């Protein structure tokens, strides 16, 4: 096959998206402002094979510099074509030439209409590489003497990433504001990405910046999210991120999906930018561990506090909650409503407790699993309190029925807010981190101590409560509670032994808790409307303290222990 002279092959021909990413107008999730990426130029390597530059990077190492190049090839012919024998060289503006080693995974031939990527890398014991302005495919005939070198193709490198920290690493990158949609320059993909959420989170493994990106496919065919990652950068240091999804993410035409990145950072760090990096893998010939290569493509400004989080929408207690349309946590046939949100003090505990109750309703015709979401409360100053879910929850919801799940929040006594942002969180998509699936702005409900008390799905009225004491033969005092209650229950709401209970706590005249008695809304000895006696013979004391006070609590068992909501104080 006769080769084209390399000078004539410098004429650029844009082939569209079969080999390169074209100039595509994209939109953010909630804006119509387009972000257009420049088309990638490709060149003729042979009569049938065309080449385009995907990545060129110069990255500092401990002893010098790492040079890395990825070239994308496309066989436009009707038969298999072998890739010509060659060396890949990069040249600097000062005329210095470096020969890079090919990855062992590089293809030697391409099938018709096939796209292949060739990866090259070399480490140089010098930090004075200079500016790269060209790379070339060079055929070396080692059987001739002197050896004969023929340049098959030379391509100008208009976009080179010079890695590092601080502003130097950003000089060759395009800059985006938070929430601006983008495509990845040089990558053969029409997928559009929009950063939608960023938060700093703490787990047992340490602190991390967690970023959610919306990927959308505006094309006409199925696409797989290409290999890339998000790093974070402060003024002094860069932090490497990792995508949470281990399996490939595929998007059909018109489909949208979230992808998530976790970036471990140090405590107290202030981030300034996110870096979008295209990633490749270099496999050394002769065996050895593969090297991960990363090339910076774009810089995204780290969002301000009000930008990185989902905006809380005004919410009326009892209304169905509107969830993110892409969430996998809540089945579309499962309706979730916040039925109660109370904040109150706990006598003798040193903190306040907030309790939220959610009604889950199966509106389908078949049983559905109970959604496992987390929740947190955030006050007007941005202080966040993590919720603890009740310990035992039924696994399935039967059609046409509702179930109640409770969450408790430990809040300091200094908290005086009455309006909170209540976030519902997905703990699976970016595990062990969380992402927001709904954010509500609502007020806490006032406790009505002297009227009917709501313990959804029950309404509870204390018509009369009295406590009597008895003396045992061992001169110990025992207690009995005489109750006259009015209890009504909402229809079609299931209550089982996982539901919260009432706790009657006896406090003596110096503030000591001398005993307590729990009562359930389910089971053989459940609470009923009318008069009844709670036998508290298991509560004994050798001192009779009068007068005493009875604190009535609602109790919920959570993974953090027993959460209590004070309902009534009886003296």
How large is the count of helical segments?
A: 1
Largest sheet composition: 9 strands, mixed
What is the mean pLDDT? 86
**Helicity, in percent?**
under 10%
| Rounded radius of gyration (Å) | 33 Å
Oligomer: single chain
The stretches of 5 or more residues where confidence is low (pLDDT under 50) are: 1-34
Estimated structural class: mainly beta
Total number of beta strands? 43
Give the DSSP E fraction (strand runs of 2 or more residues): over 45%
- Shape annotation: elongated
What do these coordinates show?
The protein is mainly β and 571 residues long. 1% of the residues lie in helices and 52% in strands. The strands form 10 sheets. Strands 3, 4, 5, 7, 8, 10, 11, 12 and 13 form a 9-stranded mixed sheet that branches. Strands 25, 26, 27, 29, 30, 32, 33, 34 and 38 form a 9-stranded mixed sheet that branches. Strands 14-24-23-18-19 form a 5-stranded mixed sheet, with no helix packed on it. A hairpin with a 5-residue loop joins β39 and β40 (513-519). The chain starts with 24 loop residues before the first strand and ends with a strand. Residues 1-34 have low confidence and may be disordered.
């Amino acid at each position: 096959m006769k080769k084209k002279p390399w000078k004539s092959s410098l004429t650029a021909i844009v082939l569209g998206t079969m080999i390169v990413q074209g100039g595509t107008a994209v939109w953010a999730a909630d804006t119509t402002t387009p972000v257009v990426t420049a088309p990638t130029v490709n060149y003729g390597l042979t009569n049938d094979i065309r080449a385009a530059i995907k990545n060129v990077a110069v990255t500092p190492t401990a002893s010098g510099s790492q040079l890395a190049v990825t070239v994308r090839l496309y066989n436009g012919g009707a038969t298999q074509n072998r890739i010509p024998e060659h060396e890949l060289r990069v040249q600097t503006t000062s005329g210095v030439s470096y020969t890079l080693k090919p990855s062992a995974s590089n293809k030697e031939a391409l099938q018709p209409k096939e796209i292949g990527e060739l990866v090259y890398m070399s480490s140089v014991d010098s930090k004075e590489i200079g500016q790269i302005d060209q790379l070339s495919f060079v055929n070396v005939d080692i059987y001739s003497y002197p050896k004969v070198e023929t340049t098959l193709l030379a391509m100008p490198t208009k976009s080179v990433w010079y890695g590092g920290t601080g502003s130097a690493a950003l000089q060759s990158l395009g800059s985006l504001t938070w929430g601006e949609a983008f495509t990845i320059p040089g990558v053969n993909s029409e997928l559009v990405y929009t950063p939608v959420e960023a938060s700093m989170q703490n787990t047992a493994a340490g602190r991390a910046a967690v970023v959610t990106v919306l990927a959308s496919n505006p094309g006409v065919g199925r696409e797989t999210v290409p290999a890339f990652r998000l790093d974070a950068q402060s003024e002094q240091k860069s932090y490497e991120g990792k995508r949470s999804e281990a399996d490939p993410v595929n998007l059909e035409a018109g489909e949208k999906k979230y992808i998530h990145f976790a970036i471990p950072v140090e405590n107290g760090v202030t981030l300034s930018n996110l870096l979008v990096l295209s990633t490749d893998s270099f496999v050394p010939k002769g065996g050895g561990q593969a090297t991960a290569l990363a090339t910076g493509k774009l810089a995204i400004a780290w969002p301000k506090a009000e930008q990185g989080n989902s905006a809380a929408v005004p919410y009326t207690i009892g209304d169905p909650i509107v969830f993110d349309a892409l969430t996998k946590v809540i089945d579309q046939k499962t309706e979730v409503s916040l039925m109660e949100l109370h904040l109150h003090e706990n006598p003798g505990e040193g903190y306040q407790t907030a309790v939220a109750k959610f009604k889950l309703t199966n509106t389908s015709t078949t049983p559905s699993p109970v959604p496992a979401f987390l929740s947190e409360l955030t006050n007007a100053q941005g202080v966040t309190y993590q919720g603890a879910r009740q310990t035992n929850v039924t696994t399935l919801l039967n059609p046409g029925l509702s179930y109640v799940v409770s969450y408790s929040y430990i809040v300091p006594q200094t908290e005086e807010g009455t309006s909170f942002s209540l976030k519902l969180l997905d703990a699976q998509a970016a595990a062990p981190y969380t992402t927001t699936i709904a954010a509500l702005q609502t007020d806490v409900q006032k406790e009505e101590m002297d009227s009917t008390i709501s313990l959804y799905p029950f309404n509870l009225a204390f018509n009369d409560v009295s406590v009597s004491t008895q003396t045992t033969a061992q001169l110990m005092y025992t207690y009995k509670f005489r109750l006259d209650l009015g209890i009504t229950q909402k229809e079609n709401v299931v209550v089982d032994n996982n539901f919260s209970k009432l706790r009657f706590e006896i406090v003596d005249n110096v503030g000591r808790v001398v005993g307590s008695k729990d009562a359930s809304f389910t089971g053989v000895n459940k609470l009923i409307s009318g008069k009844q006696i709670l036998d508290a013979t298991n509560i004994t004391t050798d001192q009779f303290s009068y007068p005493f006070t009875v604190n009535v609590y609602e109790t919920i068992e959570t993974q953090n222990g027993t959460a209590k909501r004070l309902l009534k104080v009886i003296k």
